C-alpha cells in the first residue's frame, strides 16, 4: 500500500474553525493529542494559546511523548484537542484516563474523528477512485481496506466508552471525512452531496466531551 489513508495530514480549514469555536478564550492552556506536522498547534499559538502538542513523530514544538506518559500536573490544562488521533491511542484506557487527569473540571475535549464502524466498501471505492484520478497507484481492494482499518483502529463508540468515566461525552455529529485524506479539499461538497443522497456513509464524527 502506497500510503495509509488515515495517516496524519494537514487539518482542513473547517477542522481549524471547529476547534477554534469550541476552545475557551486565549491564552488558555491547550493540550493537542496527535499534532501531526504541527500545523494546528502553530495556528493556535499564533492566536495566543499556550499549546502543548504531542505526537509520536515529534517535530518542531512537538513532544514525542505518549499521552499516557505525559508528565504534567493534575488539572493543568484548560482544554484538549484531538484531531483524528484517538482512534489509534495505545494503551487506550490509560491514555483516556490521563486526559481526564490533566484537564481541569469543565474543560472541553474537542474531538474530530474518523469512525471505522461507519466505513464501508462504497466509501473506500470512492476514495480510491479519487486517488487514482490524481495519479496514485492502484492499491488494495475496498474490502481489504475496510478489513485492515477495522483490525487496527478504535471505533468512536469504543472511544466514548473509555472517556465516559471522566467526561460527559456529547452526541457525535456525523459529516464528510474522505475528502481530507490526501485528496483535494474542494471535494468536500461532492462528498457531502453523496452522503445526503445515501450513496456514501458519513465517516467523520465530531463531538465535545466535558471534563466532570
Molecular structure report:
The chain is α/β, with parallel strands linked by helices and 212 residues long. The chain has a single domain (13-211), classed as Vaccinia Virus protein VP39 (Rossmann fold, 3-Layer(aba) Sandwich), CATH 3.40.50. It is 33% helix and 18% strand. It contains seven helices and eight strands; from the N terminus they run αβαβββαβαααββαβ. The chain has helices spanning 13-22, 39-46, 92-102, 121-133, 142-152, 156-163, 188-196; strands at 29-33, 50-54, 62-63, 79-83, 108-114, 167-169, 173-175, 204-211. Strands 1, 2, 3, 4, 5, 6, 7 and 8 form an eight-stranded mixed β-sheet that branches. Helix 4 crosses helix 5. The model is unreliable at 1-5 (pLDDT under 50).
Number of helices: 7
CATH topology: Rossmann fold
Basic shape: globular
Structural class: alpha/beta
What summary fits the major beta sheet? 8 strands, mixed
The helical percent reads 25-40%
CATH class: Alpha Beta
Mean pLDDT over the full residue set: 94
Q: Separation of termini?
A: 42 Å
Order of helices and strands: HEHEEEHEHHHEEHE
Going by CATH, what is the homologous superfamily?
Vaccinia Virus protein VP39
Give the number of domains: 1
Radius of gyration from the alpha-carbon trace, in angstroms: 17 Å
The number of distinct β-strands equals 8
CATH A-level architecture: 3-Layer(aba) Sandwich
* Strand residues, percent: 15-25%
Poorly predicted runs of 5 or more residues: 1-5
Amino acid at each position: 500500500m502506497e500510503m495509509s489513508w488515515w495517516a496524519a495530514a494537514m487539518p482542513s480549514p473547517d477542522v481549524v474553525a471547529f476547534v477554534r469555536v469550541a476552545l475557551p478564550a486565549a491564552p488558555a492552556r491547550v493540550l493537542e493529542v496527535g499534532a501531526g506536522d504541527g500545523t494546528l498547534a502553530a495556528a493556535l499559538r499564533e492566536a495566543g494559546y499556550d499549546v502543548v502538542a504531542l505526537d509520536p513523530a515529534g517535530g518542531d514544538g512537538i513532544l514525542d511523548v505518549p499521552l499516557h506518559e505525559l508528565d504534567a500536573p493534575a488539572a493543568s490544562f484548560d482544554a484538549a484537542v484531538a484531531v483524528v488521533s484517538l482512534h489509534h491511542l495505545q494503551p487506550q484506557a490509560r491514555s483516556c484516563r490521563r486526559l481526564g487527569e490533566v484537564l481541569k473540571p469543565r474543560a472541553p475535549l474537542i474531538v474530530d474523528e474518523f469512525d471505522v464502524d461507519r466505513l464501508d466498501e462504497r466509501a473506500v471505492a470512492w476514495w480510491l477512485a479519487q486517488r487514482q484520478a490524481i495519479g496514485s497507484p492502484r492499491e488494495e481492494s475496498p474490502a481489504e481496506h475496510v478489513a485492515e482499518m477495522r483490525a487496527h483502529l478504535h471505533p468512536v463508540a469504543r472511544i466514548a466508552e473509555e472517556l465516559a468515566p471522566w467526561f460527559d461525552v456529547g452526541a457525535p455529529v456525523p459529516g464528510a471525512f474522505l475528502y481530507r485524506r490526501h485528496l483535494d479539499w474542494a471535494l468536500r461538497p461532492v462528498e457531502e452531496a453523496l452522503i445526503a443522497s445515501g450513496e456514501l456513509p458519513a465517516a467523520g464524527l465530531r463531538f465535545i466531551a466535558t471534563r466532570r
